């Protein structure tokens, strides 16, 4: 696939959205390296760069991860439905479509050409984690991995590749760690599928800026354009 | 200040770095809205968009926040030095310069033209938080705010504005919440100063990609370029 023309930053950020349906086309090595390299440009607490990215491209490995992921999804869906855990937002316009996409992804995960386990190494967090790896400041810890994950999602979009940030694997994290030989003390914070999209990129719909951003105190309006 | 020419995505991501020294020039309203709007383009668990951004631009308010921040920094610096908490990385090339920058920022925070409290609303996290707001999955919770923070940092860079992701305010979070009238149940996950840089943008230096990214299992090399 020919390289697309470079996209300006705001086109990328405004049209990046969760892609949950993928074409089977392979992801070129250069593109894979470029999105991972972008991830490593992110900030981290103490400049420690406490991240690792474990890419699954082997078909048998992806099938093993996908089987575990699907069980995690089925369990989460059952609990969510039984206890009505999404009651607060299931009437919002995005919800039904999002849930169909999440279900489609869980069923098809083995066919996505690349899966990326985005890992946070608790052993490199210094005072943010205790000697046993327990997080003393989960906020500062995850502030050292999710900016990198977001860079990865945006860089993929810039190259015409789709992704979505998932944390469902946490129901089956031991199996995922075993499949990828991830050592103790290293947490998989996100599992990101990567491939050319069968869905469309944005623009995304969001709450209005004035509903979520304030000036000089809670509830006080921002200056208008 | 005239709008700079649009930057392509990879120029932005490769040159975004922590800026800790700022010029006093005002941040135009349009630029402020644009970086906040970029923040809201990020993904969030369940598509809940559980974020708020409270901007401090009023000089007295910034001075109040800066005084609390500086106390948090002095306390953190003392503890870190006494217990040698950065022993694992204080010999790395970036460390001394980073610490000088952090100290300079803490001393000068009141003079930075804009401070942005990036907030995570625990009341909008559904099953990710308990009824009392305690986080059941800190990972999924912070996965719903730090991608937005990273979008903000990158968008600022795209407009020629500097930022740095700080979490030091957590030592004085009650004071910060009082200053900005942030309601109970809403956590300030990051405090981001925003202004035209007196430091230079990157390119940033990072560990080599091959040291932190693997293919088909931990420790197995990525394909080379």
Q: Largest interface, by Cβ-Cβ below 8 angstroms: which chains and how many residues each?
A: A-B, 98 and 98 residues
Alpha carbon gap, first and last residue of chain A: 41 Å
Q: Report on the biggest sheet of chain A.
A: 4 strands, antiparallel
Round the mean pLDDT of chain A to the nearest integer and report it. 95
Architecture (CATH level 2) name of chain A = 3-Layer(aba) Sandwich
Return residue spans of chain A where pLDDT drops below 50 for at least 5 consecutive residues: none
Q: Please tell me what the overall shape of chain A is.
A: globular
Indicate the percent of residues in helices of chain A. 25-40%
Strand content of chain A: 5-15%
Quaternary arrangement of the chains shown?
homodimer
What is the number of E strands of chain A? 5
Given the helix and strand composition of chain A, which structural class is it?
alpha+beta
- The ordered H/E elements of chain A are HHEHHEHHEHEHE
């Amino acid at each position: 696939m020919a390289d697309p023309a470079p996209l300006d930053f705001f086109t990328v950020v405004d049209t990046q959205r969760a892609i949950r349906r993928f074409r089977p086309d392979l992801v070129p090595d250069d593109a894979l390296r470029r999105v991972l390299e972008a991830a490593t440009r992110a900030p981290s607490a103490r400049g420690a760069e406490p991240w690792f990215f474990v890419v699954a491209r082997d078909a048998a490995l992806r099938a093993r991860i996908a089987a575990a992921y699907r069980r995690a999804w089925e369990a989460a869906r059952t609990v969510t439905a039984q206890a009505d855990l999404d009651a607060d937002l299931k009437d919002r316009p995005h919800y039904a479509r999002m849930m169909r996409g999440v279900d489609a992804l869980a069923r098809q995960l083995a066919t996505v050409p690349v899966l990326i386990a985005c890992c946070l190494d608790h052993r490199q967090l210094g005072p943010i984690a205790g000697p046993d790896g327990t997080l003393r400041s989960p906020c500062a810890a995850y502030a050292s991995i999710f900016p990198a994950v977001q860079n990865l999602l945006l860089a993929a979009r810039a190259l015409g590749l789709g992704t979505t940030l998932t944390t469902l694997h946490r129901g089956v994290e031991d199996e995922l760690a075993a499949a990828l030989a991830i050592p103790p003390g290293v947490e998989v914070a996100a599992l990101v599928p990567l491939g050319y999209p069968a869905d469309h990129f944005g623009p995304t719909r969001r709450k209005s800026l004035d509903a979520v951003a304030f000036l000089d105190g809670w509830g006080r309006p921002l200056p208008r354009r």
